[in-house]
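Example for tutorial group B:
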């Protein structure tokens, strides 16, 4: 074969299997119907992303291991904890734990030495992780039904609950469903149920898509840098109810919560979008439907008046009866198109280097 023919073959080999590069700058579209295409373009599967991801993740995805859990038998294990403990410390491979439908009454912790773990439920089936831990017994952040310390975690098609009763004032009855403390974690089609402090979005970069989060007070809290897409935020109970207590403590911290194409629902009309648990919370709602349950002032008055100058609360092109800005507290940010753009891209969570779609069951 001559040199010209060899060159043509090489050209065809290279361009027949293009590497798809995710982008950190392509904003989520305002038109909700375009979200699937945006996601397909920017969060392509590993088969199209080889060589473009974090090196450790690239290597892990190349060597997948599947473990099955079925309480009725027929799987590798009968409990989630048994499956997690079977993963060696220092794990370097993607381990997909496939869960048969059912209710798993377990308190599960995935420690920092076991990265690259996926908990995968069956689409369309009820796969429930549930426990009843409370702050009185475990401490607030250790009360969670599922605690993840490790990096590159993923969960899909799961219901995660804390079934402890709604806490009474001063009872130390806070009860978490989930605590995510690892970096570069993704959640797809997951539902989180609790009352006070349902989801501790504590530390690291995180992505939530097509999820549901239910609670009463501070039911999303912590220091995470997180993007919530097409997620329903539902407040239950009565009295004072607050969705977010984002824990940023200085302008130097690169964290905050962004809610894009989400929906706020509940009962009554006293739900606040957030409060200043710490001095510098950063929370943005964009293209989000706010029903009449949202308090007209939007955000809870700051614990300290000095926080009026340090909180960052923004709303951009939200809609619904609870979205009107006329009566909002004066410390709400007036966010324009240029200011909101960084909050609408994967760059907010540096997602192009690690974010992948969920695996098929």
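The residue assignment follows.
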């Amino acid at each position: 074969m001559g040199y010209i023919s060899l060159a043509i073959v090489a050209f065809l080999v290279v361009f027949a299997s293009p590497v798809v590069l995710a982008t950190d700058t392509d904003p989520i579209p305002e038109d909700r119907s375009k979200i699937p295409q945006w996601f397909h373009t920017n969060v392509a599967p590993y088969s199209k992303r080889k060589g473009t991801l974090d090196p450790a993740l690239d290597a892990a995805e190349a060597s997948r291991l599947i473990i099955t859990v079925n309480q009725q038998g027929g799987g590798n294990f009968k409990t989630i904890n048994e499956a997690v403990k079977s993963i060696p410390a220092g794990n370097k491979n993607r381990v997909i734990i496939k869960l048969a439908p059912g209710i798993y009454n377990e308190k599960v912790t995935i420690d920092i030495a076991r990265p690259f773990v996926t908990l995968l439920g069956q689409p369309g089936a009820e796969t429930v992780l549930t426990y009843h831990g409370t702050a009185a017994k475990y401490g607030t952040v250790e009360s969670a039904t599922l605690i993840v310390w490790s990096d590159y975690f993923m969960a899909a098609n799961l219901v995660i609950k804390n079934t402890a009763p709604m806490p009474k004032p001063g009872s130390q009855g806070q009860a978490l469903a989930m605590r995510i403390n690892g970096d570069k974690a993704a959640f797809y089609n997951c539902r989180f149920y609790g009352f006070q402090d349902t989801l501790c979005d504590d530390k690291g970069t995180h992505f939530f898509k097509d999820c549901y989060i239910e609670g009463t007070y501070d039911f999303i809290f912590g220091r995470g840098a997180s993007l919530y897409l097409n997620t329903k935020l539902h407040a239950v109970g009565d009295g004072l109810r607050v969705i977010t207590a984002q824990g940023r403590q200085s302008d130097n911290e690169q964290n905050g919560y962004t809610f894009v194409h989400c929906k706020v629902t509940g009962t009554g009309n006293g739900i606040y979008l957030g409060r200043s648990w710490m001095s510098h919370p950063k929370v943005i709602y964009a293209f989000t439907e706010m029903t009449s349950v949202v308090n007209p002032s939007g955000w809870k008055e700051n614990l300290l008046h000095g926080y009026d100058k340090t909180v960052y609360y923004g709303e951009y092109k939200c809609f619904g009866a609870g979205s009107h800005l006329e009566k909002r507290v004066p410390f709400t940010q007036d966010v324009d198109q240029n200011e909101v753009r960084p909050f609408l891209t994967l760059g907010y969570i540096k997602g192009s280097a690690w974010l992948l779609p969920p695996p098929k069951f």
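Confidence is low (pLDDT under 50) at residues 1-17. Compare this with the pattern of hydrophobic and polar residues in the output above.
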